[in-house]
User: Fold Mannosyltransferase from Thermothielavioides terrestris.
Amino acid sequence: MESRPAAEGLRERRLVGPSGSSVESSAGAPRPASRGTPRPLHPQVIAAEIEDVLNLLLVFRFINSLCVRTFFQPDEYFQALEPAWSIAFGSNSGAWLTWEWQHQLRSSLHPALFGLAYKVVDGLMTTLNLIPLRATVLVALPGALQSVFAGLGDFYTWKLAMDIYGRESNAPWAAWCCSTRTFSNSLETSLTIAALCYWPWELLNDAKASKVAPLQQRGRVISLRISLVLAAIAVLLRPTNLLIWLVVLGLSLTRLGLVGKSPLDMATMTVLLREIVVCGAAVLAVSLVSDRLYFGFWTFPPYKWLYFNMVQSLAVFYGRMPWHFYLSQGVPLLTTTFLPFVLVGLYKGVSSLKGSSTLQTNIIRTLTFAALATIAVFSLISHKEIRFIYPLLPVLHILAAPYIASFFTTSPAFPEAPPSVSSSSQSDTVTLRRKLTLAYILSLNLLLAGYLTLFHQPASLSVVTFLRTDFERLHPDSLSLPGDNNQAAAAATATSQPPDQQQQQQPHELFALFLTPCHSTPWRSHLVYPALRARALTCEPPLHTAPGSAARAAYLDEADRFYLRDDQGSGPWPGPGYGVRFLAEEMWPATKDGKRAGGKEEGAAEEVPRYIVGFEGIEPVLTAFFDGPGKGMGVRLRRVWSAWNGPFNEDWRRRGRLVVWDTGIYPGSYRGTEEAEAEAEETRGRERVIDEL
Assistant:
């Protein structure tokens, strides 16, 4: 019997039928050969088909990553790219390491992938003397790398659906999904679905279905090891991922809610336990060494994560959601137009699956229980975000896939008859139906994807591009990175973090002050140059307070203090209701003689930024301050850049256009669009006067 090439996937599907001929199985259930059964494809044809699918998905996700022009959520940058930048270019690179990294709550494995990519690509571009393109390439690099993970996530989603429903089914083609954003949840999702794809699902089969023990088949132990390694990495990245694997492993051992008799014997359970311990210990050792190299001492981030979030209850500092958040918002927003099919898939998963094999039933039921259990446990946690259940999205798509396919095609995606019935009774031709409904659904999904990719908060990315390119214009001799030939100069000009703790000796001005809600834009991964000094409002949690204490309840971070409303107009500072007090008492407090720190009179003009960045709603705040308490600072605000940031935003502080104001303190100011147009109109006016004369 000819062996199947490695590209075929998880396990041998070529089984021997009653007549001795080789036939295909669906999810491990043999289909007896019959006159109407199509002849199996040659292994090389199958391998080529799978390779083509993978290449197509990788190309599609790469193009997808290049099209992303919007800001979604701060963790995309601050929990991945900022520590990665620090790994690649060192502590003098100006990376902003948030409190989670200062207290070792995160594993270094995820940013290490991007850090290595930064280092390799930067070294290659330096060797090839492509320095002028370096900033552009480094900014685009993380998305390109994440597109590989996203493409693999799509591929393994399709592959697992093919293993469950069979190659002849249309269901696998309805199961793709993943993300090109650099969240740890995105990598967790790809790792999880790949691990599920390599998991030896024969552990769920009926003992009567095969005379060979599940892990005695050729290549199954290797497949198990791959699955366990990928799962262990996912758990170290996000400890909550353990919930999925507790369900999968628990049902494999106990068979609660499953059908058939367990095929696990003592030898199989010994092998399973051995591989769990060995693979888990190996991944844990690599993680400990990585964290030791990154943090400089031995630490275990999953423990720190549990301590700060569970014992210290710091997660609620970032918001509390009702218990039904994932049911009423999370799953609907995650699945969008495919929600009805997902609900049907979940319902069918816990009920009887008519006509499916024992193994197929048990796999679907296990995936269903894993999804439901994860959502139930996450619903008990006060702080909730949709991305926390993102690893369930491939599973939900797989569960919904047969009902999507059968709803829109004439060829049944989920067999309504037992597998032993000849497939000759089924149509070999797939015909689309309900085409108008399908067109509406696809169009709506394309519109949503296009909006989130191109139109929802695009200014948060374009503003840092403006600042970076203007810095290149003003300071062309200060565009080095740590590790360049002038490393000493780069180290001397670096900005340490947090951003409000700047070094005292800096060759350049404070280039930008961000008076926005904290983490409203990317940071060094897009600003790039260490010499580009910037300062932003921070939002560190109250680590110094006890849970439930009055001090914690009254705590306000820096961004909260800036946006603290004073609608009654009380206090000495006039203004639009917020902001002026913060600027007058914290940002630029008055000295004993009444002068403002950072003013020209104090000889510290560098602490007044060249540019102030904020949403247009703060313009009255700035005007009230610089015309009032800060009048002596010599600031003359002028808009030099602004951009539309989407049609709406749920946060009132982020509504409106994002604006850059020039303070007028430094020479070489940027000639904004409005100024250029006004100057051009004035020139045209003079020319008309001359013509008339």
In short: The chain has two domains: 6-70+103-421+429-454, 459-680. Residues 288 and 386 are 29 Å apart (CA to CA). Residues 1-37, 412-427, 486-506, 599-606 have pLDDT under 50 and may be disordered.
